[in-house]
Amino acid sequence: MSFKCKIGNSILELIAGDITVQDTEAVVNAANKALSPGGGVSGAIHRAAGLELWDECRTLGGCRTGEAKLSRGHNLKAKYVIHTVGPVYSGSKSDPEDLRDCYKNSLLLASRNKIKSVSFPSISTGIFGYPVNEASRVALKTITNFLEEHPEIDLVRMVLFTEGDYGIYKASLDKILKD
Ligand code: ADP
After folding, report:
1. Which domains are seen in the chain, by residue range?
2. 123 lines ligand 1 (CB under 6 A)
3. Could you write out the three-class secondary structure of 4-65?
4. Would you write out the chain's pLDDT as a tens digit for each of its 179 residues?
5. How far does CA 35 lie from the centroid of its chain?
6. Residue of 141, 132, 140 lying closest to 164 (CA atoms)
7. Which of 27, 29, 161 has most ligand 1 atoms within 8 Å of CB, for mutation?
8. Is the CB of 30 under 6 A from ligand 1?
9. SS3 of the chain: helix, strand, coil, percent, to 5
10. Closest ligand 1 atom number to CA of residue 40
11. Which of 58, 115, 126, 157 has an alpha carbon within 20 to 30 A of 11's alpha carbon?
12. Coil, strand, or helix at residue 175?
C-alpha cells in the first residue's frame, strides 16, 4: 500500500509499513522526554538501532514536547534518527500546536543538517492517545506547507503501521490536495 505525490519540488509518500527498515537518510522517532527506548515505535527503533543509540541519546540532554534532537542511526539503514516528543493528547488547543511543532522542527533539523529524505511515524497516535484522524490533518498540513517552502528536502515518507491508519492518512491527504 503506497501513494506518492509531488509538493513543490519534493515528493510526499504515504506507505503502510515498518519505520525501522526505511532507507531514507533519516527516520523520525516518536520519543519520550528522556529519550529512553520505552515502547511503541521508539522501542522498535532502539531495538533495531542497537544499544549504541541509547548511549548516544543519554548525551543529548532530553527533549521537550515539540522539540527535535538529532542522533546517528547506528545499526539502522537510516544514517540519522531525529527524535521528537509529541503531545500527550488532552483535548486542549496546545495539542495541534505541539504536534505541528514536532513535524516542523524535525524537518528544520533535517534541512539544517543537509538531510534530504525523512520518514515519519504517526506521532502521538499510539500511547499518547491523539485521535488518528485529527493528527493526520495536522501532520499532512504541516508537511505540505513545509515542502512548498523548502525544496531542499527531496522526500518525506509517512510510514503508517496499520492499513487502517494508512486509509485515514490517505483520506486526509486527498482532502488537503483538493483544497
Ligand atoms: P506516541 O507515544 O507518540 O503515541 P507510539 O510509539 O505509541 O508513539 O505510537 C505512534 C505510532 O507509531 C502508532 O500509530 C503506532 O502504531 C506506530 N508504530 C509502532 N511501531 C511502529 C513501527 N515499527 N513502524 C511504524 N510505526 C510504528
Report:
1. 2-178 (3.40.220.10)
2. yes
3. EEEECCEEEEEEECCHHHCCCCEEEEECCCCCCCCCHHHHHHHHHHCHHHHHHHCCCCCCCE
4. 999 999 999 999 999 999 999 999 999 999 999 999 999 999 999 999 999 999 999 999 999 999 999 999 999 999 999 999 999 999 999 999 999 999 999 999 999 999 999 999 999 999 999 999 999 999 999 999 999 999 999 999 999 999 999 999 999 999 999 98
5. 15
6. 132
7. 161
8. yes
9. 40, 20, 35
10. 6
11. 126
12. helix
Of the candidates 64, 61, 35, the residue with the CA atom closest to the CA atom of residue 49:
35
3-state secondary structure of 2: strand
pTM value? 0.98
> Residue with the nearest Cα to atom 18 of ligand 1?
41
